Amino acid sequence: MRQIFIRLTTTLCVATALLCTATTTPAADDLFSSDSLKQVFNPAPPQNATPPSPPQQSPVQPVPPQQPPTQTQPPSRALDPAEIPNFLMLMGYQSEDLGDGVFKTTLKKGEWNLPYAFVISPNKAQFWVTLSLNTLQEGVSIPAEKMQKMLNFNHQYGPIHFAYSEKTRRIYVCRALENDGLNPAEVKKVIEVLAELAINNEDLWNHTKWQTAQQPQVQQQTPQAPVQQQPTPAHVGTWRSTAPDNSTFQLTLNADGSFVLYHVHGSKTDKSVGRYTLAGNSLTLLMTETDKLEAYFTWYNNGTWRFLMKDAQPGAQGLLFAKA
């Protein structure tokens, strides 16, 4: 009986163990997750989830750039055109207003009368000092050799330079100064240097000293009639006159339209050069564009002629010139 009970108990335990094993032991595949790697590393957000708000930052106030300290410009010391006469007075020069801001003064150096013009450039940046030298006669041009030497002069003495006006046919020597705090002593030095250079280089600008190269004569196949030389006008030559104050005048009128005038008063001698025109009984001596003498020219049968200024006082006799 006991053996039957033991055998029954053993059978019941084994059955119970098998039943528990069949109902509770999972399959091998159930030991691993069925989720993909993509779902693991990139899980879907939970539904109805509110995204986190970015952290609030306080607004940053922009910092204005630092401005460099303002530098005060020194007051301008540019000379105004209306101040030119007083400025020249500081150097002891009287001036004449030619209009358009141009002022003229004539200075004497030895036997030379030197006409200067002073003007300020339109932008007031430069103060021009100009010495008027010579007016070319119609048909006269500057030879290439002289032009080359003028350019070499400009290179050597610049900013002092020669200049030529096609409108007036006049040659100048000039210097431009910076119009800022002009010093009268420095300007006077420039005036003196211009005079010295002009006198020492007269052969460059004085066309009466230019020598025209002789052109080779070409033998003509056909005989040419001899050229009739025009007689020399009666007024051409050197003339002298004595004034009531015993001062003497010597005037040379050249055939090319140029003149040279000497005035001797005691131990003092003045010399003027320029161009002249004689039309009918009117004689004009032109030293510069604005400096001229206009007179009546009266010819007498004895070969003398009278020079009477057109603005002379009533009753004036003028000067009687005779051939020297």
TrEMBL record:
<feature type="signal peptide">
    <location>
        <begin position="1"/>
        <end position="27"/>
    </location>
</feature>
<feature type="region of interest" description="Disordered">
    <location>
        <begin position="38"/>
        <end position="79"/>
    </location>
</feature>
<protein>
    <submittedName>
        <fullName>Uncharacterized protein</fullName>
    </submittedName>
</protein>
<feature type="compositionally biased region" description="Pro residues">
    <location>
        <begin position="43"/>
        <end position="72"/>
    </location>
</feature>
<keyword id="KW-0732">Signal</keyword>
